[in-house]
Amino acid sequence: MSLKTFRPLTPAARFKVLPDFKEITKDKPEKSLTSPLKKSGGRNNNGRMTMRHRGGGHKRKYRIIDFKRFYRDVVAEVIAIEYDPNRSARLALLQYPDGIKTYILAPAGIEVGAKIIAGDNVDPKVGNALPLKSIPLGSAIHNIEITPGRGAQMIRSAGSQAILASREDGYVIVKLASGETRRINENSYATLGQVGNTDHMNVSSGKAGRTRWLGRRPHVRGMVMNPVDHPMGGGQGKSKGGGGRHHPMSPWGQLAKGFKTRRKNKPSDRFIVQRRKVKSKK
Question: Number of folded domains in the chain?
Fold first, then answer.
């Protein structure tokens, strides 16, 4: 993937950096692998708003992705690279010898015509899916299962990857991009390589309208609201929470900076070998 910039003929074009989509080879999704996707607008089943700043945006269809790699020991061919509006990564459309088609997340460097396979004893090549116990140490992996057979849940966004560090007692040690080191069952499947669309982090929409197309509405700071609308609202001019110094918090009073929201004694804590890096205080 590469990016394209624009001549600053308008304020929107001055800082606009967009993908050029040259890697996309198919315009429309595979009809048999799509399903309807209804927008909630941030409302729950009672119609009450539980998530602010959501609404509108372009209609989408959900692409059904094979996160479990159901077809084992059967070689598939990549017949297309597609855009997915529901995620930052691109999709690779696979076709098996019996004519069945599936979607997977497109690894970096994969091209149309490539051969891909999933199985316990396949070659550790980019795009192939293997159990963690069969992947060489030091390999870059993505699409990792947390529980064997449940399907990939980790390392699925554009440009992300984890490093397989070591093995011990039926588990492998995986180093995540955040700096966290984690134990995962060695029978869990993962895909070799890095998730594609690596330049996604450098995209700049350039204008508010493009953000609205994605279904994101404008954000308003709590500080400029009235006290009835937000704990940090009110006061004469710019003030911290109506004249007094308030810690930043949500409209419902939950602290926004430094307050730990992870549940204590969470069962998965025993699999974390080292927490992600914390910025040092100066």
Answer: 1
